[in-house]
Amino acid sequence: MFFYTVPSKPVNNRIKIWRRLAKAGAVQLKNTVYLLPFSEEHYEFFEWLTQEVDAMGGDGTFVQTQNIEPMDDGDLKRLFSKQRENDYRDIDKKLDTLERKVNSVTKGSGTRGSKQIEEQFHRLARDLHAVTRIDFFSSEVGKKMKEKMGAVEGALKRMGRDKKECPSPSITSRRVEEYQGKIWVTRTRPFIDRMASAWLIRKFIDKNAKFTFTEDHDAKKLTPQHVAFDIRGGEFTHQGDLCTFEVLVKTFGLSDQALKKIADIVHELDMKDGKYETPEASGIEEILTGIRKTITEDAQALEKGMSVFEMLYAANA
Hints:
- By secondary structure, this protein is α/β, with parallel strands linked by helices.
- The protein has helices at residues 11-24, 40-55, 73-109, 114-133, 140-163, 192-205, 244-251, 257-271, 281-294, 298-316, and strands spanning 2-5, 27-30, 33-35, 59-62, 183-187, 210-214, 226-228.
- It contains 10 helices and 7 strands.
- The longest helix has 37 residues, at 73-109.
């Protein structure tokens, strides 16, 4: 529970604090009293916000409490859910408009404007992700909005297939046991697909996998002890509209929800075809770009990139 007061002028200070609280998902209990469910992240947020209020010449404090009389847990959850319903309502209206546009295209009015429709969908998906992130008690409205967004996404994918059917590549299955003790080779200056693929190899295929680097034209000169990936002529590389990471996942029959999430992100960053809606992708790309810019040694850059995907996997597992 957060309490604060700030001087009436300048007015933008009061607005700034209000916006910070709203973005964090806090609900207003009374005037300048706000609530957030307890978590380490929220505790730290209130710590910093208190300092910010103090710097404005105001007064802020917060407390951790188990009960707020006369409200019970159900009352508090409904308070948060009602606030999120207001957020969802605006997205719902925009999604209705977008759904009509998609239906118009799929019913035969042509694909004119389909790119703009996809861009609008991605913006709405990002907005929905931002709201669901602060829908702390998974409101019923939020669940219905996710279903509705999924239905529109499915219609968009069908629209895309109607425009250009892309046959699924044939992937030959492999056994993990066949790839133990190998040296995995990829291109120099590793980036998204290579970093993610290296992480996948060490996480799910060979925990002791070693990596080395070469140029594209060297791939065919490798010994049987070496396995080339994400490299022209390599054993594991892009096939059809699949990036190397996806090829590895399918080849070794790997499947879990967190891995699927990462596969979508890697595909979007590497292929940039708008096939998947991944709000986290841009942030992951910035981190990996930072690694690439600050670390010139390939092996070290690869390891750093792999650690990013390990943390991403842990966050979604």
